[in-house]
Protein 1
Amino acid sequence: MKTTITVIAMALLVQLAHAGKDLNEFKDVQKVKVTTHWGDLEVIGTPALETEDFSLEIRHTDSSNKPSFIESNLDKFVSIRRVGGQLFIEARDPVGFESIDMYLRVPSYIKVELELLRGGNILAENLSQGLEINSLNGSVEARDISGNALITAANGEIKASFKQLDAEKPISLVTMNGGVTVSLPENAQRDVKLRSRKNGYVMSDFELGTRENITNLNQAVYSKSPIRNSATINGGGALLYLSTENGPLAIRKYR
Amino acid sequence: MKEQESYEELVEQLKQLPKKEVSSAVNQRFEAMEELWNKETHRKSSNSPKWYGIAASIAALIALLLWWPFGTSIQDHYSAMEDASDKMAIIHELSAKTLQDNDVAWLGDVLKTEENPNIRVFILDLLEIHESAETHDLLNPLQEENVPAVQMAYLNLARQFESEEIMDQLVVFQRRTDLDPSVTEKVATIISEINNN
C-alpha cells in the first residue's frame, strides 16, 4: 500500500515538474527571445543531458490580484513562434492591469535574450551561451553564467556572476538607477570602464591596473562627483563596461 | 614500464654494434650520381623560358590582390557581424584610438540603426569622451529613442555641447509623455544649464 502511494506521489511530482508548455520540439534552435510586459521572468538553464528540459510555465495575476498557474490554454497568454533558428515567446499585450510571470527552463546551450517592457524582476541562471537583457523596472540578476552578457536596465540594480568567461566577448552592464555588481573568475582578463554619474563608489576584489585615481575605491562612501575611469584586470582583455547614472559599482571574484 | 626497459636495452645493444663504412666503390657510385643530378637540375633551370617566371609572378600578384583584405576597416568588420557581442567588441577596439571625423560620422550612422541598447550606450559614451564629436546631428536619433538608459546617454552627450543649438531638440524631446522621471529631470536640468549660460 505504502509503495503504491509513493509511486503515485512521485508520478504527481513528475507531472507537476513538467506542468506548463513542453517546448522540447524546439531544442534545436540557437536562440530564444522572450518578451513580456508586466511580471517576473525566470530563466533556468538545464545543462546536463539527463536533466535537459525545455518548458514554460506561466502564472497569471489579474486585476483582482489573484495569481494562478495556467495549466491549459497557455496560448491565450503567450504566443510561441519559431522563425528559422530562433524561438520567440511573447506575452500578450496587457488586458487591463495584469501581470504574467514566466518560468522558462531551457537547455543551457541555447542563447537567451530577454526583454521586459514595463516592470518585473528578472533572474537568469546557468546559461552558457551568452545572455542579452533589456529591462525597464525591476532588478536583474544573472547567476552562474558562462560566456558573456549585455544587460540594460532602467530602474533597478544589476547583478551578474560568471563562472566562466568567453575571453573574446565583452560584458556590458548598464542601468540608470541602481548599483551594478559583477563577479568574475579569478583569472579573468578585462579592460574595465567604470561609469557612475552620481552617488557612486567602486568596490573591487581585483587589483585594478590604472594610473587614474578612482574616487572612493573600496570605500563605501557615496561620491557627489561623477566616477569615470578606465582600468585593467589581470593585464587587460575584452571589455567590461559597468555604467550607472546613480549608484555604486562592484567587481567581485566569483566564488 | 617493461616496454620502456626493453627499448632501453635495445638502444644499448645498437650502440655496441661495430661502426662500419660503406665500400669505396659504393661511395664513388653515389658521388657520380649526385654530380649528374646537380648538373641536370642546373641545366633545366637555366633553359626555362623567362616568360614562365613572369607569368608565375603575375599569377601570384593576382592571387594576392584577390586575397588581400582591401577596405576591411573596422566599419566593414562591424557590418559583417550579426552578434551584438561581436559588434560591441569592435566598438571597444575603436575606443582605443583617437576618433577621426569619419569615425564619428560612421558611429552616428550606427546609432540610427543599431538595435542593441548596450551598444548604443557604449557608442554615446565613446562620443562623449572625444572632443571631435561636436556635431549636433548625433543627437537626432534621441527623438525616436525608447530605452531610458540610452536616452540618458544621449543627454549626457548633449550636456557636453552646452550650446543653444541643441535647445530645440531638447525641448521637443521634453514634450514626450512617456519619459521616465529620471530622464525628465535630466533634460530639464540641461535646458536650465543652457539657459543660465
Protein 2
Amino acid sequence: MLSVAPKGDETAEISLERLHYGKLASGATLSVPATEGYGVTLRSRNLRPADDRLLSPTQLMALRRFEPDLVDPASRRHGAFLARVSPEPNSRRAVFLRARFRPEDGEGGHGRLYQQSAVWSVAAADWRRHPAALLAMAGSELEALPDRAAENEGIRYSADPARYVVRFLDPQDIWLVLEDSLEKTRWAAPVLEFLARGAETGQDAALTFGADDFASEAAFLQAVGLALQFLPPSYPRWREISVVSGLRHAPQGLCLRYLPSLRAATGATSVAA
Amino acid sequence: MTERLSICLIGPKKGGKSSLLATLVDCVAQSAFGYSPRLRPALQPITEAEFYAESVDPKKADLLSVERGDYERLRRDFAEGGLATDTLDTYEYRFRLTVNGEAPPAVVLRGPWLLEIIDSAGEIAVPPDGAEVAILNDVKAKLAKQMLDAEAIVIVLPLVRLEDSGWSGNLARLIDRLALAPEKKLKRLVVVFSQYERLFARLGPSAFTYACDPAVALHALRKSLRAVQWLDRLRALERPNGGGVSVRFTVCSAYGFVKRFQNPNIDPHQPGERRFRRAGLEGARAYNEYWRPFLTAEPFLYAALGLDSAFTFSYAQLDARLEEIA
C-alpha cells in the first residue's frame, strides 16, 4: 500500500470545471428516451460553449473517432480514463476524462450503444502541484454518468464547479515511498526510467502496464501519481505527459498507461505520429 | 474512365443510416438487391489514399489482404447491436464500385466509380422539431458543405415510426434550403424507408415472398407518404429551377429476412433487437448463416449509377399508383 503523509496542515483548494457529453437519461436504469440526442448536457458556469470542441473526448484523446473497441474490455463498465494538460496550444488547463459506451436502454441493457463522457478541467498549475491527489480523486469520483432529462436545463448549463481541498505532500515522504517501491514493486523503476529517458531523448513513447503490475486502476493511478509528484519543477516535458487507463490508444508525448486486460508491462513503445 | 462521387447520408437519429451503410457491402455480395443479377456489381471498401490516388486499379496484394479499417469497424458495431453516431464529426467511408455484367453502355462507360459516402449523426442535419440541439459549429459547417458538394443525397427514414415522427418540420426546412441553394452539385436524391421487414412481422415464412414484390413496396411507400408534409417540397428539387435533381423512393431492411426460413430477421428470444444467430459462435460469424440484408444497396447503386431497379420508384410511378387507386 502506497501512502504518503500530508505535509503538516498546508492545504490548497482546487476548483474543477465540469463538462458532460452524451445523452440525457431517465428512470432507475438511466435509459435514454427516444427523443434525446447527443449533446453537451452539462457545462459548469466558467466554461463557455466555445470550450465544447476543446474539451470533446476525441480532441482530448487525440482520436478522429472514439470507438467501442478502443476501450479495454475490462474497463467497459466504468470507461476509459485520461489525464493530461489540455492539448490546445499554450493551454493553461489540465483535463481529466472518463468516457465509455453505454446501452441506450440503460445500465445492464442490450440496446444500441452511445458514448457518454465526463470531463474535469483544472488549472494546469494545480495538476503540476498535486498530481497524486488529483489522480486519486478523478480515478474514484469522475464517472461517465448521463445527466437526467428531468433536471433543469438552466442549472445544468450553469453548474457550480466542484471544489476539493487537497493537502500538500512532503517531498521527503514521497521519496521514501518511492524508494521502498523501487525495492519491492515492478512498476517504480520502469516509470522513473521512462520519465527520465523521455526528458533526455525528447521522443514520444508509451509505457503500458497490465493486471500483473496493478490489481486495479486505482492502484495504477496512485503509483503514477506518486511518480509524477516526485518530478522536479524543472522537468521539461510535464505538459506532454498523459496518464491513461483502459484506452487502447496512446496520445503523443509521454504516455503512462494501464490496460487491465493485459497481463504484464510491455516496456516503453514508441507512439505513432 | 473513373467517376468519383460523393453521397451524403442524412435523416433523423435512429433512422438506420449507419446500419444501411454497414450492410451495403454484404448486400451487394449477396446480390440482395432489386437489380438484375446480370448487372453483377462489385463493391470494395478502400482507403482515403486509394480514393484520391491517380490510378484506381486494385493492387494485386489486395487479393490477399484482410479487410480492416473504419468500414470493418462499422460492420462490427452493427453486428454487436449498433452504435449511435456521435455529433463530434462527420465520417467518410470510401468504396470502389464496378459493374461487371450487363448494363446500358452509357452507364458502364462511366465506371469504375469511387464512392465517398458520408455518415453523420441524425441530430446534425435533421434534429427533433423544436429541440435546441447544441452541435459544434464546425461540424455543422462541414456537413453543410459536404451536402452542397455531394452528387447524391440519401435520406433515410424509419418506415414504422413515420406518422409520429418529431422531425418532419426540420426535414421539410432542410429540403427547402437545398432546393434554393444554387451552388449545390446534387444530381440524385433517394428517399429510403428503413426497417421494411417490420411491416411483415406477422407473415412468418411468407414475409420474404411479399417483401420481394415491388407492387407491395410501392403500396407501402404510397401509404407512408400520403400524410407527409415534405413530399411536395421535395418535388421542387426535380424542377429545373430546383436543380433538376432525379428523386427516387425505395425501401430497405438492414436486418432483412432469414435465409431459408424467410421470416423477418428479428429474434424475439434475444434481449433488445437482435438478429437470429447460430449458437456457439461469436461476432459476425454467428449471424452469417441466417442473415440476408434486403435492398440496402438500392439507394447507393441508384445514387452512383442513376440506374433504376425494380424497387426504385419515381414521382411519376408514385403518382400513377395514386391515380390508379383514386
Protein 3
Amino acid sequence: MLTPEERQEIEAELAHYPNKQSVCIDAMQIVQRHRGWISDESLKDLAEFLGMSTEDLDGVATFYNLIFRRPVGRHVIMVCDSVSCWIMGYEQLREQLSKRLGVKMGETTADGRFTLLPIVCLGTCDRAPAMMVDGDLHRDLDPQKLDGILEQYQ
Amino acid sequence: MEKPLTQKIRTDGEVVDVAAYEQAGGYQALRKALKLAPKEIMEMVKQSNLRGRGGAGFPTGMKWSFVPMGADAPRPKYIVCNGDEMEPGTFKDRLLLEGDPHELIEGMILAAFAIEAEVGYIFLRGEYKLSGERMGRAIQEARQRGYLGKSILGSERSLEMYVHMSAGRYMCGEETGLLNALEGKRGNPRAKPPFPQVSGLWGKPTIVQNVETLCNLPHIIQNGPEWFKGLSKTADGGTKLYGASGKVKRPGLWELPLGTTVREILEEHAGGMQDGLKFRGLLPGGASTDFLVEEHLDVKMDFTEVQKAGSRMGTGTMIVLDDATCPVGMVWNLERFFSQESCGWCTPCWSGLNWAARMLEALEEGRGDLSHLDKLAYITRFVAPGNTYCALAPGAAEPLQSGLKYFREDFERHITEKRCPWRH
C-alpha cells in the first residue's frame, strides 16, 4: 500500500502532466526516497495507482539507472566510471573503495551500511575523479579524502 | 571580452536569485518581447545565427520555423529544455543551471513566445539534484513576479513551467528519447518524420532545446542579432562555454568567443599538459566526437571548422589524452559506456557496440589479434548514419574510428606484445 504521504507527493506531480502514466518515473523516485528501493509489491501498488500494467511499469523501472529493483544499503555510493574520471584515477579509487568496504561493484556491505555502484559521467569532469553518496557530490577525490567522506555516512 | 552567459554567475557557488537577476538587467528581454510578434522574435534569432549548443548545432530560428502557427495549430504546444547532460566529459550546462536559473527561465519564456507554447518542461538528469532544487525555486520566484503563469505581466500570453527529474539514461538526451521519457515510457527513439516540431510531446508540436542554447536568447532579444554575431570569431553567432578535462594543468570551463582555437583553449585557458606529460590527442566535444591530434591544434572550435578537420564541436567540452594514458584503454572505456547505455532499440547499436566493447577488452588484456582491428572498423560502418533510428550509434563510432586511425600503432602493440604497454 502507498502511504498517505507518498500518495500526496505523487498527486502533486500529477498536476504537472496531462495523464497518469507520465508521472510514473517521478512516482517511482518518490517511493524509492521513502523505502530505498522498488520492491515487487511497491511496483504492483504503483501500477495500480497509475492505471498501468505491472509489466509496463517494470519495463520503465528497469530502463533507468537510478531506479533500484533490488534492496540497497543505508547509503548508496555511485562512483563515476566514465572517461574523464577513468583518466584521472577511477580504477585506483574503485580498488580502494572495494578494499575498504570489502565489497565489489554492485554489492552491499554485510552490515547493510553501503551499496557500491558504478555510475555514468556525473558532469563534473574538471574535478575528477568524482562520486556521489546519497545524492551528495564528492569531487577531486584522492586516497586521503576517502575515509573522511565515508565517516560522514553511518 | 563580453561573457553574456556567465557574467552574472557568482564565484562563491551561490545562486543568482530573482532580485539579483533583475538588478543585472534580467527579464528586460521578456518585457521587450511582449511588444513583439512571434514572427519578429523568430526573425531576430534567425538573423543572429544562433546554432544549438547541445551537440548537433541545428540553427535555432530554423528549428522554430517548422512549428505550426496560428489559430488552427494543435494545442497545447510545448517548449522543452534538454538538461540531461550525460555526454561523458561534458559539464557545461550544470554551471548555467546551478548558477543562473533565471537566465534559462527567461530564455524558455522567449522561445515559448516565438512558437506560442503554453507549457514548458525543464528535463534534468536525476543526478543534478542541486540544479533541480534551484530551478524549482526560481520557477516559484518567477511565478510570484508574474513572469510565469496566466497572463504574463498582464499580457495575453501565458506559460506554465515545470521541472522533470529524470532517472538516468544517456539515451534520454536524444530528442525523441527524451520525449518518451517525459511521457513516462522507456526512453527509446521515435521514427522521424513526424518531427517533434509538428508532433512531439503527447502528439503536440514541441521544441526541444539545450540549456546553453536557451540561455543565449535573452541576450539576443535584448542586444540584437548584430551584437550577437559580433561576439563570435566565426560565422555562427555568440560565445561558447568551452571546457577541458583530463591531465591538463587547469581543468575547467570558460566562456569564450565562438571560434576560439583548440590551441588557445588547451594551452592558455587549461594551462597545457601537466608537468612531465605529453599531449597525444583530444575529443573536442564530449565522448561521441572524433579524436583531434597535434596537427589540428590551430582549428577554430566552431561547427564548420571542426567538421572540416574530421570531427565535431559537439558540446565544446574537450577530453584530453596524455602519453601516460593508454589510448586503447580510453577507447574501451568509451565504447563500454555506449554499449551499456544503448537503449536496445536498434540491432546495430546494441549488438555492434557490445561486440566492439568486448573486442577492445580483449585487446587491452592482451588477448587480441589483428583481425580484431578489421572487425572494429567494420562495426564503425555497421552503426553508420541511416542504420539506426537515432544519432547516438553513429556518435559511438566516432572515437573508435578516429582512435583506430590515429593510434593504430598503439593498438598493434597491444597485439604483438600481448599486453597493455601502459599496465605493468
Protein 4
Amino acid sequence: MSPKSQGRVIIEARNIVKRYYIGQPNELEILHGIDIQVRKGEFVAVVGASGSGKSTLMNIIGALDKPTEGDYRLDGTDVVKAHDRELSEIRNRKIGFVFQTYNLISRTTAIKNVELPMLYAGIHRSERIRRAKELLKMVGMEDRMNHRSDELSGGQKQRIAIARAVANNPAIILADEPTGALDTKTGRLIMDIFHKLNREQGKTIILITHSPELAEETQRILTISDGLIIGERRGSGYAAV
Amino acid sequence: MLLFENIMLAFGSLRANKTRSVLTMLGIIIGIASVITIMTIGNAITMSVNDSFSGLGAANIDVRVSQRSSRRETSESGFVFNRGPGRNNMKTEDYITQEMIISLLEEFGDRIMGVSLTCSVGNGKVKHLSDYANVSVTGYNNFGLKQADLTMLSGRKFTSEDQGDAKKVCIVSDYLVGNMFEGDNEEVLGQQITCLIDNKFYHYTVIGVYEQNKNEPYNANEHYDTSTNMYLPLQTAVDQTHSKNRYSEFTVVGSASNDVTALLADVKAFFNDKYYRNNENYYVTTSSLASILSELDSMLSTVSLAISLIAGISLLVGGIGVMNIMLVSVTERTKEIGTRKALGATNGSIRTQFIMESITLCLIGGIIGIILGIVIGNIISKAMGYSVSAPVAAIIIALLFSMTIGVFFGYYPANKAAKMNPIDALRYE
C-alpha cells in the first residue's frame, strides 16, 4: 500500500490545548493548539526534545487523557466527550500501545501478557490462546510463550509487547520510544516488525522517537517543540530488508 | 470479564508473592481456627454436661414447699411495694399431706412412674459394745428406696409389711459393718443395734447391708467420724419424728416416655391451684435436672459464643492486615495498573481484580483456618473423652465471614487502584 492510496482520516485533532493545574497559580499550558491528521495506514514519526509536549500529545491521541480544549475524533469517535468506560473501550479496541519500558505484567508468562487485551475485550479463552499463539509466531516468539516476562531479554520483551499491542487488531499502534532501551541491532529488529505491520496489515503507526534515522524511515515526520508542531515533512522511506 | 478469569488472575498474583500471601493469611487462619476450635470444644463440654446429668436422673422432679419470696402490698397511700420474705416458720397447714400426694397420683397416674417419699430423722450414733459409727437416718418409701439404687450385699430391702406396720428395721452400709462387726455382712443380719438420735435411744433390727458408694469421698484419717446413710421404712421414721405424714419436699419420677418439662409445670400448677392458692406465705415449686440442664446448655452456648466473639477480634486484626498488604500491593503494582488501563481495563475490572485477590486471600485463609480449627478442636475434645464434630453452622458462618472480610478490607485498596489516573500510573517508577 503506497502513501498515495491511503484511505480516510483516522486521527483528526484540531486546536488541541492541554493545561495542568487549572485555576491555580502554577497553571501550566503544555500544548498550545495542535492540529494533527493521520490517515489510515500511515506510518508517522513524532520527534521533539523532551519537554516539548510530545508525550502529552501521545497520551491524548492514545485516549489516556483528554484535551482541555479542542476536538479530537479517533476513528469516528469523539474522544473529548467520551466517558471513562468508553475511553477504556477505545484503548482496548482501537489502539495498541508499545512502551519504551515494555510494561509487561511481571511474573506472568508471555502468552498471558498477549492474552490480556483480549481478556478485557471479553474474548473466549480458547480463541484467546489460539490468537495469542499466532501473534507470538508473527513476532518470532512462539518458543518462549511460557516464559515469564522476567526471564526474557529486552528485545524479546518488546516483541511480546508488540504482539500484545495488536492482539485486538487495533487500527492504530502508538509506539513511544520503542527502541529507546534497546541496542541498535535489536532496535532494528523491532523497527522491521513495525514496518511489516504497516505494509502487510495496513496498520496505522505513530512512532515517537528521539532518533532522526528511525524517524527518517517513516512516511511523514512531525516535529514538535514547545507545545506546537513546528515542522512537517516526508520521510525518505524504508527499504525492506 | 468472567469471574473465573478473575479468580485465575487472583491466584496468579497471590502465587507470585507466596511468602507475603501466607503471612497475610496467617491472621485470618488464626482467627477462624480459634473460633472453630472454641465452638467444637463448647460442643464437647455441653455433651459431657448432658452425659453426667442424665446419669443423675434427669426425669426426676423435685417438689418443694417454698416461701413466697415477696408479697405485693398496697399501703394506705396507694403506694405499691414488695415486702420481703416472711420470717414465719412453716405451720402445719403449709405442708404437703399424704392426701395431696394420693390425689396427685389420681390426677396424673399414667404420667408418673412413682413418688419418692423420704422423712429425715436426723444424724445419730450407732453404738455396739465400745464401737460407734455416725449415721444419717432417713425413712424411705419403697419407691424411694428403689430410686436410691442400692447394691445389696446381704439381706433384703423393706417389704410392704415393714412399711405398713412401721417395723423397727434398718438397712446399714458395709462401711458401718466393717467398723463394728468385723465386716461380716451375714453375721450382722438380725442383730439389734442401738442408735442415739437427739439424745434418745432407738433400737432397730438390721435386715440388710448395702455397698457404700466407693466414689463418695471420705477422709481415711478420720474414718470413724464418717457418716453413712441408714435407711428406715418411711412409716417408722414418720412415727418417730411425729411428722404425721407431712412433707416439705418429695420427688416425682415421670414415666419414661413422658415430657418432663410439661409434667413439671402441671405438677406445680396442680398444687398451687388446688391447695396453695390462698396460702400467703408458702407455695409449691418444682424443679428437675432436665430444666436445669437446658438452662445450663443455653448458658454454655452463650459462653462459648462470647469467647468466639473475642476470638473474632483476631479476625478483625487479620482483616486489617489484609487491607494493609493490599494497599502495599496496589502501590507496588501502580505501573501494572497503568498498563492494564492502557490495554483497555475499565475501572470496574481493576476494582474487581483487586477485590477478588483479597477475597481469595481471605477465603483460602478461612478454609485453612477451618481445617485447623476442626483438627485442634477434635484433638482437644478427644482428650476430654468426647468425639464431636465442629458445628456446621459455625463452619458456614466462618466461610461467609472470611469472604466478608475480603470484600470489606479489600474494597478500599481496590477502589484506590481503580481510580488511578492511567498516565500517572504508567509514569510511576
